[in-house]
Amino acid sequence: MREQKGLTEYSNGVDTAMKHFSSYDDQNPIKMEAIVAGPISLHIQPRFGEQAGVSRKMFEAEQVALTAAGSAFHTGVALQKLGIGTGLMGKVGDDDFGRILLQALEPYGPLLTESMIIAVGEASSCAIVVEKPGREHTVIYSPGCNKTFSVNDIRYRLLENIALFHVATPALLPCMYQNNGEGLLALMQQAKERGVTTSLDLSFPTLLGVKPEWNEMLSAVLPSVDVVLVNVETLLFLLRRPLYEKFTARANKIKPVDRVSPELVSTLARTLMEMGPKMVGLKLGHRGFYLRTASFALLEQMGRAQPSGLVNWADREIWAPCFKVDVTSSTGAGDTALAGFLLGLLRGMSPVAALSAACAVGASSVEAPDALSGVRSWPEIMERLAAGWPRLLPGKKVRTPLDMEAFKWRWSETDEVWLGPEDSRY
């Protein structure tokens, strides 16, 4: 039987969290603790069978699914499922698609729609997603009112009584990136003025009409961001474009994420930290989740979702491996992993426990065909961790970018994480 390790880390703050696993009724309402802002879109997805019929240019679909989608939707709903009272602040039109999007949120509880923005006379965002067996999938995207979503749409009054304000996928909100991120800077500054902890998910700049100077924009925006979260490949694109292109040009044999060495991860995180955030979290797919934090004095400025036990959080460099699972689909898993990490902040967990929560929620997500149906309540995930959920670790005598010891990282047997050379507990 596998030894159970570090269970006190996982249980830290769980008694408090359990108070929030109530049903959605008038007698036991859940208080809003977090708001997730960002683009939300209606996905129209034909589903084909293996023998889908074809007649000239007409394809036969077995059914058509209408689903809400987007990083803000995935992260917000995952937080809600984990027991955090969460509102979504997406912008939808007063059209049929907007009504369908709002209806799609209702099963997850009333809080999610309370902070939504309804744009009168505007069209809601939608995407037609075609994934036919044996063919490359195609997406036809209509930005709708995401194209006009600006700093002036934010319902700032709602930020005054919550702990965490998370902004997801600003790259799909062109108004936020115009003039080198002027709108995003104003948004984060106004949020910080209200005492809330700010979190930003820097997504890949797909379909972005404006092209900011990334170093200049991030240097201006990130001092107003407490927690910046980003996929390592996206960070490569933003900060090391030639290296990103080199890695992706050879991606047919080895995935770009597997070419990134621990040394490069540390360098990228250090560069981002120097721009002003209090924490940097890097999503590394099947390789896990990396965390870098600032000094005690800077962490004290984090706002209402400031982590408990700042001594344990200060000057940390930690890399948590993934948990072993059978992967069904990785779509949206990174978004749900962020929800796990933010849960850790809001529930007073240690950094090790917060990283384990991130990896556990992300791992649960990939076991299902969609981003959210695999995400369970936090007590259910806790039970799996306590039962000795094994980590995904490289084999012995393997010198690859996954070979952490070759890059002077130290394995903590108790916590089941790697400690980097710049970690205060190294």
Automatic annotation (TrEMBL):
PROSITE patterns the record matches: PFKB_KINASES_2
Keyword list, A-Z: Kinase, Transferase
Xref: Pfam families: PfkB (PF00294)
Keyword Kinase listed: yes
GO MF term (any one): kinase activity
Domain of life according to the entry: Bacteria
Record-linked InterPro entries: Carboh/pur_kinase_PfkB_CS, PfkB_dom, Ribokinase-like
All copies of domain Carbohydrate kinase PfkB, residue ranges: 58-372
Stated name of the protein: Sugar/nucleoside kinase (Ribokinase family)
